[in-house]
Write a structure and sequence with these properties.
The protein is of the alpha+beta class and about 700 residues long.
Length: about 700
């Protein structure tokens, strides 16, 4: 018995010793990523397709946007294969009173409201969710595909009768959504196909309508009866439109609208092309570009990027737009995107004041109102960081001069908000009180640090006084030390950061220092991010132990892990995440959050996804109007990767990274007929001047 007790005590001592070692041992081991079963498949034309082959029921939703409209489509099939489609059409610039974030008008249209279709005098039932009626024709959906236009392929249930190709898309420049139906006769006999004429109008209340009453119209295009010969086809369409002048004649060309939508998508996809050996990553990058760029609305104050999600239109935020999206636009070269960036920064600059009261978190209702319900969320740090990064990478001195007063004002605001420990205080954070944030949080101080460094570089380009730019660098150096002292610590066994001073639970946003080049706690932070405490099937939990997740923190984290040089670990999780978002159960874009919003396809997350590659994988850090530091992270299994047709730093160029040997990489810059080559150590940094 004595020997048994001695052995037991020894085992207890050894076990205690092992537990003490967990942060650098077992805790450091990343959990096995869940197995994924793809529902969708990448097609040769770059679209993704769901071929209906069982695994029902299934439902999903997607958002698509143009300059004057957005459409949120819910679609699905029940366990018997019966389909349902509904579309909620949002009109961002048709608004009600009083002015508010959500004062736009929107209407939902169901399949049972469509005009009736007839094939050889038998009604085609398009809304199958309500069952079929004797004598009606039904159809089976064969596939659904996405690439800026949602396309549904179906065939009538009477074998060998009619193939139906259905497409839904927003107009590029009108407050209108188009739904097309193309019927193809697959028989050896003529078929009579018809659509009834339909027009429905709804007018908003004149007292609460802004400016004037708004009319929403649902109407058919090309109604009537046609005889379709074997192998031939005919098309009908329906439009959903808002107007303030319903008495004016309305002419809609569905084919022209479809071509314009395809052209706009190609305009977004043409610049900033990612080429890697991984088709999955290349394709999700393209889709992220689409969603990150299409959601720009033409308002009375100019182009305004908006998140969407049935809530956020003709409005801007210091985080979604100023911090997340516009630094991405500085590389994309989309003319509308860059106009939206300058419009937004100018709108925020209107609220600068000599008393240094906080700039509103959000400017809504086409610029006519503001939202500041969470107080100062660290918005000035967001604005200074985003504007300085955008100005440098955009590479246009005149635009940078316009932004400089906003940047310097926001930096001074943050400086005045430093507490006795030298970190930035705020009322809340970008989560706006959903989770505790203390009196000072790690993202705000980290963003302020990044803004100081970028502003110092920008000030040099604008020939600002050396004393001013030197002071920014000095403040950044002091702040970096203070961030370590105030936030650095052991949380749940990991040497990482406390989200706020008294925080003792892991939080997703501890990743932000990595994206700002603060790497002294990189090892422990990366281990914490990829630990079972934070990593979930959908990316990072906002707080360890909670089901809530926001993709934006996962996207920041993936970028930061690449910047920390943990390339292989980052790539494993990036591929997992990309596959889930592109080919899984909710596709094809990064999402906002869950449970809140039910994983809406907000637009800014698309820009954050692309920045994983721009700043993380290719390691581009703007340093001047025509210069940047490049710290590429080429995965071991790749021999080369490229970002082509980059529109940034005042130039259009290609950036190629290739492996020379196990220790050396080549960087090749192609700018027109000019080719510049550099040789660096793997993991090294090269300063590049175009």
């Amino acid at each position: 018995k004595t020997n048994y007790n001695m052995k037991t005590n020894i085992y207890k001592i050894l076990l205690s010793f092992l537990i003490l070692l967990l942060p650098c041992g077992l805790h450091a081991q990343q959990p096995a990523l869940p197995q994924q079963t793809d529902r969708w498949a990448i097609q040769p034309d770059g679209s993704i397709r769901w071929t209906i082959n069982g695994r029902l029921p299934h439902a999903d939703h997607i958002e698509m946007s143009g300059e004057k409209v957005s459409v949120w489509v819910q679609y699905g099939l029940d366990s018997a294969g019966r389909s349902s489609v509904s579309r909620t059409v949002v009109f961002p610039t048709f608004r009600m009173l009083p002015d508010a974030t959500r004062s736009h008008i929107d209407y939902t249209f169901l399949d049972n409201e469509l005009p009736r279709f007839f094939i050889n005098s038998r009604q085609l039932k398009t809304d199958l969710s309500v069952g079929k009626k004797s004598g009606n024709l039904t159809y089976n959906i064969k596939s659904i595909s996405h690439k800026g236009i949602m396309r549904i392929e179906a065939i009538t249930t009477n074998p060998g009768l009619v193939k139906i190709d259905r497409s839904i898309f927003p107009s590029v420049d009108k407050p209108m959504v188009i739904e097309k139906f193309v019927f193809t006769n697959t028989t050896d006999k003529p078929v009579n196909i018809s659509m009834e004429s339909l027009k429905r109008e709804v007018k908003t209340d004149s007292i609460t309508s802004k400016v004037r009453p708004h009319t929403v119209i649902m109407a058919s295009i090309g109604a009537g009866s046609r005889v379709v010969q074997p192998g031939g086809h005919t098309a009908f369409a329906v439009y959903y439109m808002a107007t303030d002048f319903p008495a004016q004649p309305i002419t809609v060309n569905a084919d022209a609208e479809e071509k314009a939508r395809e052209k706009r998508i190609n305009t977004i996809l043409s610049p900033l092309q990612l080429q890697t050996p991984d088709t999955l990553l290349n394709t999700e990058f393209k889709f992220a570009k689409i969603r990150g760029t299409e959601s720009i609305y033409k308002t009375k104050v100019g182009y305004m990027h908006g998140p969407g999600g049935l809530a956020y239109y003709a409005a801007i935020w210091a985080n979604d737009q100023a911090e997340y999206t516009y630094p991405f636009y500085a590389f994309l070269g989309d003319s509308i995107g860059n106009l939206a960036a300058m419009t937004s920064y100018r709108l925020f600059a209107r609220y600068m004041n000599p008393e240094y009261k906080a700039i509103p978190s959000s400017i809504v209702a086409e610029g006519d109102a503001v939202w500041q319900g969470a107080g100062d969320r660290g918005d000035q740090a967001m604005l200074a960081y985003g504007a300085s990064r955008f100005a440098l990478a955009y590479g246009h001195p005149d635009s940078a001069k316009v932004l400089w007063p906003l940047i310097t004002w926001c930096l001074e605001y943050c400086h005045r908000k430093l507490n006795d420990q030298g970190v930035v205080t705020s009322n809340s954070d970008e989560l706006e009180g959903r989770f505790p944030s203390g009196k000072a949080n790690i993202p705000t101080s980290s963003l302020y640090y990044g803004a100081l460094v970028s502003a110092a570089n920008l000030g040099k380009q604008l020939h600002q006084p050396k004393a001013q730019t030197d002071e920014y660098l000095k403040q950044a150096a002091v702040l970096k030390v203070n961030i370590e002292k105030y936030f650095g610590g052991k949380v749940e066994g990991f040497e990482t950061y406390k989200y706020y001073e008294t925080n003792n639970v892991l939080r997703a946003w501890i990743c932000v220092p990595l994206t700002m080049g603060i790497l002294n706690r990189a090892e422990g932070t990366v281990n914490a991010l990829f630990s079972p405490r934070l990593w979930t099937a959908d990316g990072l939990a906002t707080e360890a132990g909670k089901e809530t997740f926001w993709d934006r923190s996962t996207l920041y984290a993936l970028r930061g892990v690449f910047q920390a040089g943990k390339t292989e670990r980052a790539m494993d999780y990036l591929r997992y995440y990309s596959r889930r978002r592109l080919l899984g159960e909710h596709v094809p874009y990064p999402v906002e959050a869950y449970p809140e919003g039910n994983q809406r396809h907000l637009s800014a997350e698309g820009g954050l996804y692309c920045r994983i590659f721009i700043e993380g994988v290719f390691g581009i850090l703007p340093t001047g109007f025509n210069s940047f530091d490049c710290t590429p992270r080429l995965p071991k299994g790749w021999n080369e990767m490229s970002l082509n047709n980059i529109h940034s730093f005042g130039h259009v160029f290609d950036l190629k990274i290739s492996r020379l040997n196990n220790r050396k990489l080549n960087i090749t810059i192609t700018k027109g007929s000019k080719i510049i080559k550099y040789k660096i150590n793997d993991g090294g940094t090269q300063t590049i001047t175009l």
